[in-house]
Amino acid sequence: MGSFIIKRVLVSIPLLLIISFLTFVLINLSPLDPAEVVLHAQGVPKITDELIAQTKAELGMDRPFLIRYINWFMACLQLDFGKSYVTGEPVWSLLGPAFLNTLKLTLVSVIFIIALSILLGVICALKEGKMMDKSVRGISFFLTSMPSYWLAALMIWYFSVKLDLLPTSGMDSYKSYILPVIVIVLSYAGIYFRIVRSSMVSNLNEDYVLYGRACGLPEKKITMHILRNSLQVAISVFCMAIPIILGSTVVVENVFAWPGLGSLSVKSILSRDFPMIQAYVLVLAVAFVLFNTISDIINAAMNPKLRKDL
Amino acid sequence: MTRRMVAFLAALMALMVLLSGCSDGNDAKTGSIAQGKELVYATAKDINDMNPHLYPGSMSAQGMVYESLVENTEDGIKPLLAESWEISNDGKVYTFHLRQGVKFHDGEPFDAEAVKKNIEAVQKNAKKHSWIKLSTKIVSCNVIDPYTVQLVLSETYYPTLVELSMTRPYVFISPKNFINGETKDGVNGYNGTGPYRLAEHKVDQYAIFEANENYWGGAPKVKKITAKVLPAGETTFLALKKGEVNFVFTDDRGTDSLDVEAMNKLAESGDYQIVRSKAMNTNMIAANSSKLDNPIHETAVRLAIWHAIDRETISKQIFHETEPAAYTLFSPNVNYANVELKKRGYDLEKAKKILDEAGWILKDGQTVRTKSGNKLDMKLYYDANSSSQKTQAEFIQNSLKKIGIQLQLVGEESTSIAKRRSTGDYDLLFNQTWGLAYDPQSTVSAFASESSYYHTTSGITKADELYKKIDQVMVSTDEDTRKSLYADILTIVHEEAVFIPITNGNVTVIAPKNLQGVSFKQTQYELPFEQMHFK
After folding, report:
1. Which residues of A touch B131 (CB under 8 A)?
2. Any idea where the ABC transmembrane type-1 domain is (chain A) (predicted)?
3. Do residues B178 and B117 make contact, with C-beta atoms less than 8 angstroms apart?
4. Which pLDDT belongs to residue B4?
5. pLDDT for B19
């Protein structure tokens, strides 16, 4: 098992290298002169050729591409993503707090999503095809397909304006979490609940269930077995839910004025704050690779057959 | 089970509602507004870096915290931190007598030494301020005595006082906030002399400004102003309805977070009032007269486009009458711009006639006019992030089709549009004049500037004459000469139709019904909060 973990981690390193390189290349492919982008981002009203030359030298942009990439990458390893084009502050000082804010929101949401989808998935699988199952599936389908923007506006209107219970937006106290978490949970729980349900249903028709019943095992014990087997599939999916939600909070953060990664990425993209965009992409990529690795390791721990793949 | 499930869900909902009902004892900072005491305004963007000598910060916030030597008002230049001034006969030396007893927010005295340090700090970064011509003309800034300071220029420059009155860069920050005697690489605090001081700032969340009780102009009546970051217009509207936010104005960059319908709803509720300023700037299309291989080079084509744009409908349908139609590059309330110019309205027949006479013929069975084999086909660039520009572009494209002009629309980022403008790689593009406090001089000097409208103006027959007059007007010392020069300049660009005006932009404020003294400055970027008070 130990050697599997080491192998699995080693595999993800070249992947990260490739991602970091691609990020850097893609941004540098932009047809705009980075020095000009910097000046625009700083809001300088009039940009002259000498000013561009001066900025280039200041930012070391007159150096060859590969050298710039290596410098940037070495600095990234020390969490130094350079300075924001707009404010000149270190990228990490802005990205760090935003990342934490989004992470808090994501973790709270994921906990609720897991609890809710396991609960509903199990209930619906056991009641497959009955009214209960149909109605939960119908509702979840409806909620998942509803644009979260609209759902959020509706929630704010009802809970905060009409009932005056919660703040409309911002991040002031634990109350601020309630609405955004509800919106994220309602948008995603439906997807994960279906996964739990379908793997439960497929397990229900397995031979070992029939065998267990034939041996006269108590139904509760059988259900626990089924649950354990079906959750194996779900665990890797739940693991990936964290980076997926981390990267897709843009809409919710925008509506709820949540000072997180989503808001920051939009802001950086609009002002072409390249160092910020690079860092954002990199952080998300690391999150994806990291959770993917974790889910593989957990699965391997639960199912020895999977360890031979590497 | 179904019933149990329903019960469970109901319980879950009830739990959430209960949870949310629990008070956590400390009222959220921006959760409840002390009615009748403070203002909380919604802004789409964070106030950003408040360094007054650079450009990323929010101008409305900087306008509360920092002050300039003089102020630009409707009635001309008025004293601010300088009580009086003299200009030498050759127009090169300005002597300012400073207001005494003024202190920065950190208690540092505001005196001649502080003025000198600030002006020198700005000049050290002069390349970034090249848009403001004054930055290229300051030779030195000398302390005469503790309250007298002298500004020496390399040549006469009539807009000196106007440019000194602008929100940035010639405003004053406590010398204690300088880093290594400079401000160009950042400052370590934001202490100005203005009516409000920045008390707290949480990036991307809010910024709190508190009244400066020792303000030389008397402590402001509204004691606390909070800028709350709300990127989504829907949330802003709901927050206004709930009362978490009670003030909105058209902030920087002219992005309105609320649409007209939402504004009217708020006003109808009886809690809010809508206050609109007079015309502040003009939204227009700049036409590239220097593009010799394109029909846009011809005056006739530009005139036809001018006549084919139905401004009244644009104002009604797209701007819901918040922006009136514009028929001249500058609205008559701009200094020196009250000039007799021929009004050209919406007239498709006239547009067709102009094109026919210029040799652009619409052949039978064709939709686009041609002249010696060339099609009457042009590209209009608009800012992809502006929904109103896109709508206008589509509307204009449709109007031009009726007179046989094919217009291709290209939406791009504002940075690419700015780049096109400076390199001349465009036929037509959306743009706007600088605004009341800056006009006419800033927009007019941009006519001749490579990085601005040089390509717009350089293709006209009278280009050389135009540039000469622009140079003359900037160094003129005599009011009558200046008036006639501006009249000539504006007449030339009007006759050549290189700037095709569409509407006049303004500032719109939504404020609590009981707030009085809501007025405007000469710029769309700031508001005089210190004059507001609750009934």
Report:
1. 44-46
2. 99-295
3. yes
4. 53
5. 44
Q: Which CATH class is domain B67-177?
A: alpha beta
What is the dotted CATH code of the domain comprising B24-48+194-277+507-534? 3.40.190.10
B235·A156 Cβ contact <8 A = yes
* Least Cα separation, residue B420 to chain A (angstroms): 11
Peptide bond into A90 cis (omega under 30): no
**Does B300 have pLDDT greater than 90?**
yes
One-letter amino acid identity for B354?
A: I
Kindly give, in sequence order, each residue whose CB lies less than 8 Å from that of residue A8, ignoring residues fewer than 6 positions away.
Answer: A293, A296, A297, A300, A310
Q: Given a cut of 80, is residue A309 above it in pLDDT?
A: no
Q: Where are the domains of chain A?
A: 95-272
A222-249: burial string, b at 16+ Cβ within 10 Å, e else: bbeebbebbbebbbbbbbebbbbbbbbb
**Dist. CA B349–CA B454, nearest whole Å:** 32
What's residue B27's pLDDT?
Answer: 38
Task: For domain A95-272, give the CATH superfamily.
Answer: MetI-like (1.10.3720.10)
The domain B281-505 having CATH identifier 3.90.1150.10: the answer here is: no
- Point out the least confidently predicted range of A221-235, B117-131, B520-534: A221-235
Q: Would you call B21 an interface residue with chain A, using a CB distance cutoff of 8 Å?
A: yes
- Taking only the tens place, the pLDDT of each residue in A37-62 is 888 878 887 788 888 888 888 877 77
Contacts of A50 in chain B (CB under 8 A): 127
Tell me the C-alpha distance between B169 and B153, whole Å: 17
Closest residue in B to A87 (Cα) is B49
Q: Is B9 on the interface with A (CB under 8 A)?
A: no
pLDDT of B18 = 42
Put simply, the answer to whether B228 touches A86 (Cβ < 8 Å) is: no
What's the pLDDT at A126? 87
| Nearest C-alpha in B relative to A158 | B238
Size of interface A-B (CB pairs under 8 A): 144
Distance from CA of B67 to the nearest CA of A (A): 20
| Calpha distance A68→B252 (Å, rounded) | 35
Taking an 8 Å cut-off on Cβ atoms, the answer to whether A165 and B241 are in contact is: no
Q: What are B227-280's pLDDT values in tens digits?
A: 999 888 888 999 999 999 999 987 544 445 677 778 888 999 999 999 988 888
pLDDT bin (cut points 50, 70, 90) of residue A270 is confident
Closest CB from B21, B239, B418 relative to A168:
B239
Domain ranges of chain B: 24-48+194-277+507-534, 67-177, 281-505
Amino acid at A242: I
Distance CA B463, CA B447 (A): 10
